[in-house]
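Weekly puzzle thread! Below is a chain. First person to post its structure in token form gets bragging rights.
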Amino acid sequence: MKIPEDIVEQVRSQTDIVDVVSQYVQLKQSGKNLFGLCPFHEERTPSFSVNEEKQIFYCFSCGRGGNVFKFIMEIENLSFPEAVKKVAEMEHLDIDAKYFADTTPVTRETSEQKQLIELHEQTVKLYHHILVNTKMGRTALDYLHKRGVNDETINVYQLGYAPQTRLLKPFFDERKVDYQVLRKSGLFSENQEGQLRDRFVDRVMYPIRNASGQTVAFSGRLLTKNPDLPKYLNSPETELFNKRKILFNLDLARPNIRRHQPALLFEGFMDVISAYQGGIKSGIASMGTSLTEQQIYDIQRITREVVVCYDGDTPGQKAIKRAIDAFKQTNHQLDLKVVSIPDGMDPDEFIRHRGADKFKALLQHAESPIEFDLNYLKQQANLESEEGQAAYISEALKLISTVRSDISKDLYLNRLADEFAIDKQVLKQQLQPLIRKKVTKHNQPAQRPETLQPAAQATQKRDKVVVAQMQLLNRMLHNHDVWLKVTGISGFSFVDEQFQMLYLLAEGYFAKFDQYNVATFSNLITEDSLQSLLMNVEMMNLPEVPSPMEIDNDLDVIMNRAPVETKIKKKRAELQQAAKIGDVDRQRQLMIELLKLEQQKRTTEQV
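Winning reply:
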């Protein structure tokens, strides 16, 4: 059953697109719109825009746009009915369930992707059941309880156990799951004969979910010590799972980060889980690899505050240094802090042995990256010799030169001068050339795209015909008098097919509705390219009231100048063809016709 239009509009009208989008993108007011980093492609400068008044979004860079349903369809890979249902659930709207009864998962993902996700979700349920309800899972459950993980947390994270007896393959064989889908899932290993066996055996299972909360992989911790087997075993890379792109727990942490909690970046799953159980619910973790640019981008998209909480031992300190350097390389705009866990402990150990409150206290005293870098540098230096001290001071000054605040620079210089009994003026003299070098580099012209402007201002280099069509369509949709004027012109049509399609759809819209609402109108548009064009038209920054001259000029371009341009292009093509075959008489005739058309073009441009 198709969801009735009035129900669709009821859900849309009771939803604020800003509330929904803000769960995925950190937005900041700029003029009439809110801007953020686009969730659909990587970018350095925010070009993703949300207009709260019109209840639409549009990315000036990649061109994606639409209303709240379109946003959810794009970011969650859902069909339109699923998106309506999802938005209703997100906003806790009281809509009769019968309207969504037939909303089957007809997602925009490929059939194979859907099968793989379903395979993983069924695997989660099986392993979780074995852990909490069977004798086979008792040892694994005892292990988790000894590590301080309670039953509520086990249920939240759907932790499981892959037993020594391989049960997963027979489980799916009973359900007649396609062999090729099983092969591609990463849940099985394959021998030379092509036979599949459960990849995970005798392991506590940690489901790994994507940002939408779908299970896409697993990490299994070996329960019984075996020197021949790895302690942790992750799913291999698959169509669903790329460890460089996934952040563990992002789906659960994101709502808490959105409530202005800093994102806590951990190294391990158990760090995240222990923190969550202790009421610290904004933790995320990279997938056992150094932090990647994609992961940093995903973090920066949803927050401005990040606290790095890695292990307190030497490898952990080195990992913090790598993470700080990775953030620096992306030229991030984050408020970055670092927590050093005392006594070489990891966050999980610290929380279990000293409590979540003590860990929260550590967070309150997180240090800046420059503070960490100076301490880390000191630990690596040989301060027993004059050469070592000189080398450390030289490197420390390089770090201090990167500090933006003059007050902070001065405080660091005071500390350095006191620590090594050096005249502060000497340090200042050493620092100045480093600062000048930074400033010179900073002031060099940046090789980046021009600052994004609203569509009308960014169209100067566009074809005049395109601009005229955009402006006229915008005015027609928003001004009933302009609509009546244009629709009253006999034989009027837009030059480009896509503008004409929007025009025809608008005719159908106005046959049903008296007032124009772009968020409602966009529900009638199924083609992505038409959605994008409509959003581009809507984002034009035009004067509130059109002048008669503006409308007449746009009509003149569309109805008079554009046809002449089209004829000129056609005649030039015919002239090239005549020249190829050596038809001199035809060339002469076409040249005369071209001259007349060029004269007609000049005349229309002078009017």
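Puzzle host: Confirmed. Bonus trivia for everyone else. The radius of gyration is 31 Å.
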